[in-house]
Amino acid sequence: MTHLCLAAGFGLLALAPVYGQAPAKIASAGNKDWTMPRTTDGHPDFQGFWTDASVTPLERPKQLGAKEFYTPEEAAEHDRHELVDRTSWDRLGSQAQVHYDMSQYGLDVSLVKVALTRRTSLIIGPEGRIPPLTDEARKRRADQAAQRRGHEFDSAQNRPLQERCIVWSNTGPPMTPAAYNSNLQIVQGGGYVAILQEMIHDTRLIPIGAQPHLPSNIRQWLGDPRGHWEGDTLVVDTTNFTNRTNVFGSTENLHVVERFKMVDADTIVYEFTLDDPTTWTRPWTAQLPLTRIEGPIFEYACHEGNLGMPNTLSGARAAEEAAKKDAK
Amino acid sequence: MKHRLGIQFALAAAASTVFFFVTPALAHHAFAAEFDVNRPIKLRGTVTKMDWINPHSWIYIDVKGPDGHVVNWMIEGGSPNVLLRLGFTKEALPAGSEIVIDGYQAKDGSTRGVGKVLRFADGRKLFLGSSAPGAKGEPDK
Fold first, then answer.
1. For B130, which of A74, A224, A247, A271 is 20 to 30 Å away at the CA?
2. Which pLDDT tens digit goes with each residue over A162-202?
3. 3-state secondary structure (DSSP) of residue A275
4. How far is the C-alpha of A179 from the C-alpha of A203, rounded, in Å?
5. B104 touches chain A (CB under 8 A)
6. Which of B20, B51, B107 sits opposite A315 (nearest CB)?
7. Structural domain includes residue A52
């Protein structure tokens, strides 16, 4: 595998050719002859289908210390190990060793396109990890855990948002890789940029311009985004999250700044900075490539077939009945 | 490949079931919340229908028990979007197909489960992925 170093606007980023559906079908990347595609208003044209599927961890493994990039040889070995040697569930850290989608029936994430990077973690900088929590956030997290304990399966409302088909963690902001269907479509026009995430079929509609954010009493699951162009970089500033939107433990005070910059015809470098002084001791930034894929995006009607929720709750009720019998 | 007819439950010695509550990025829901890793199942049966619904597909199979009684099982499968992109079409598993599924039963003890490995009765694997890097079409053990 060859890696190509690209002097991207955000610093050195190395991208490998992406994997096609067949392992032998390796696309070329880093075409130096490309020219920035532009919409009729002159801004970069990001429209099309993209994936942020990744085998790079959000946080850097501690043993790597401050090492922010692998060498090309190390990156090749890392990617080979992640994509070939391990099952998806080894990779994703499931305790169950088995689950649907990627490792089921012979499927595996190595069969889909993966956006590779030489970064050792998506979080940039010498630490490469989410900063320490504030004292307030530590107490909040402990209180929430204590409240949840023993009530995780009481009702649908006690289950995580993605199980309830309300918000998927990759939808963003910030957009982060999902375990599967990590695909998105970007559409531009009429003073807006729209980002449709396949999981779980949410569209972020981002107005471009200088309009102020919504009044602070209006809160939205995905926040209130405002976009503007800094040269050829699209910058999106999002505030006004709800107090139930939880991004790595954040609160309604979360402030997200995203930056999109196309570095070749098939690659957008996507960067996000998260700041929530009531959660983290400092802001933190991550960067990942978006790699162009063939469309289309398929519908993902999550509520329609969410049998997982009744099955989970009925399983919990059955366990409670069994415990009662054992107690007698 | 020989498979016993009917239902074969291998109830493993009960290790503690692992619940993982906060796994937002992994899957639609926690495997251990819905299925019991201590109740592995092997089912041989005939496909009656397949629901192509998100977040997970469901395969329905008629399974004849040792007593001749037929029970319809529901087996959870992958997201239709993933299946379709990797070549699993609506024609891949028509009603009437005889298949063998290794998986795990639902925690509530119903005739529902999740599939791990699926083969046609003659031993053919369903998936094209068996020879591809990283594809793990075989059970772990």
1. A74
2. 889 998 878 889 999 887 788 999 999 989 999 999 988 89
3. strand
4. 19
5. yes
6. B107
7. yes
> What are the tens digits of pLDDT across the range A224-233?
999 999 999 9
Q: Is residue A160 part of a domain?
A: yes
- Say yes or no for a CB contact (<8 Å) between B135 and A84: no
- Structure tokens that stand for A228 in this block: 């503007």
User: Is any Cβ of chain A less than 8 angstroms from the Cβ of B42?
Assistant: no
* Strands B70-76 vs B112-120: parallel, antiparallel or unpaired: parallel
Give contacts of A110 with chain B, Cβ < 8 Å. 132-135
The C-alpha atoms of residue B44 and residue B60 are separated, in whole angstroms, by: 12
Q: Tokens for B86?
A: 């990797």
B117 touches chain A (CB under 8 A): yes
The amino acid at residue A56 is T
Give the rounded distance of the alpha carbon of A254 from its chain centre. Answer: 16
Please name the helix (run of DSSP H) or strand (run of DSSP E) that holds residue A287, with its range, or none: strand A284-292
Which among B115, B102, B109, B105 is positioned nearest to B36, based on CA atoms?
A: B105
- How many Å apart are CA A290 and CA A293, to the nearest integer? 9
Asked whether residue A146 is assigned to any structural domain, the reply reads yes
Query: CA nearest A85 in B: which residue?
Result: B134
Q: Do B108 and A317 touch (CB under 8 A)?
A: yes
Asked if residue A116 lies in contact with residue A279, where contact means CB atoms within 8 angstroms, the answer is: no
Domain with A161, as residue range(s), is 4-309
Helix (H) or strand (E) holding A189: strand A183-189
Cα distances (Å, whole numbers) of residue A265 to A10, A268, A269: 17, 8, 11
Q: B68 in contact with A at a CB cutoff of 8 Å?
A: no
The predicted-structure confidence for A38-96, as pLDDT tens digits, reads as follows: 999 999 999 999 999 888 989 999 999 999 999 999 999 988 887 776 655 555 544 34
Q: Are strands B98-106 and B112-120 parallel, antiparallel or unpaired?
A: antiparallel
Domains of chain B (ranges; CATH) run 8-13+28-129 (2.40.50.1010)
SS (H, E, C) chain B: CCCCCCCEECCCCCCCCCCCCCCCCCCCCCHHHHEEEEEEEEEEEEEEEEECCCCCCEEEEEEECCCCCEEEEEEECCCHHHHHHCCCCCCCCCCCCEEEEEEEEECCCCCEEEEEEEEECCCCECCHHHHCCCCCCCCCC
Residue A173: cis peptide before it, omega within 30 degrees of 0:
yes
| Domain assignment of residue A126, yes or no | yes
**Do the chains contact at B26 and A179, CB–CB below 8 Å?**
yes
